[in-house]
Amino acid sequence: MSIIVRRVLNTLFPRRAGAVLLSMISTTQTKWPSNDMKEWSTPIGEYRRPKDTDLRSPCPALNTLANHGHLPRDGRNVSAWDITYHVNAVYGLSIPLAALIAYGTVFLLKKPLFSKINLQDIATNPGVEHCASLAHTNTPKKAEFGATSVCPHLSKKLLGEAKDGGYTAHDFARIRVEREREPGMNLQGWRGEIARGECSLTLNVFAGDDGKVSKEVIDRWWINEQLPEGFKPARKTTLWRAAKVGTDIRNTMKKLEKTE
Ligand code: HEM
């Protein structure tokens, strides 16, 4: 996520001023405000397990939206606006952030911005999907699509990595470093930013005031693609907050790579 911010800043403020601004983001302490969602009341649709013929993406957030009927349950004919609207309504991402990810994805898939896609298109290889996912296997080189369902082995490993009942930004950094060290991983450039962005969004949407997301939530939502009972987002996630937590994760990963 933060690479997009950096590119925009570097365009607006040439000569590394963008980099200076970004370093300011990373030096302010991360806060976990949770009092901005008191009025939030999006009714959550009924969960139904997907049928064999339904299409899904590699993203737990989008698959969960389809499993609860916010996106079409069959995973077909979805526009970037549908994704933007429901990611905002259910997960509390700001409209600019949700639109940036949704339209950015359609753009990177080289589809017309206002076209309808299937959720499986999001797994197109090569595309936005990347290697070293925490619960999905890597995509074989010549495969048309990456995995759209979780790998039981990786899921068990991810759940086993919880510390004191959950995951902080530091835990996700540690887990990502370990995963990216495995043989055959090559997560460079903007794909690395996307991978950290996924953990940042997860923390922003689900973590409590202590900055920790519980293992139960990760099991139910990331692995089983179902919203927690009585779910409402922990806070409003803006582009700034997503970039901030993503930058924290990147900085921690750099430190862990040097020390371990
Ligand atoms: C706005 C629309 C969104 C789009 C288009 C999108 C797209 C994607 C894509 C393409 C992947 C696959 C990356 C891979 O190859 O592993 C992914 C994974 C992921 N996404 Fe999303 N995403 C969106 C919103 C969200 C939100 C709101 C969250 C968190 C609340 C989220 C959390 C995740 C996580 C945790 C993964 C990692 C799955 C894994 O490593 O097993 N995404 N997303």
Automatic annotation (TrEMBL):
Family stated for the protein in its record: Belongs to the chloroperoxidase family.
Q: Where does the sequence pass through the membrane?
A: 89-109
Q: What is this protein called?
A: Cloroperoxidase
Q: Which organism is it from?
A: Schizopora paradoxa
Q: Taxonomic lineage of this organism?
A: Eukaryota, Fungi, Dikarya, Basidiomycota, Agaricomycotina
Q: Does the keyword Iron apply?
A: yes
Q: List the GO molecular function terms.
A: metal ion binding; peroxidase activity
Keyword set for this entry? Answer: Heme, Iron, Membrane, Metal-binding, Oxidoreductase, Peroxidase, Transmembrane, Transmembrane helix
Q: Do the record's keywords include Glycoprotein?
A: no
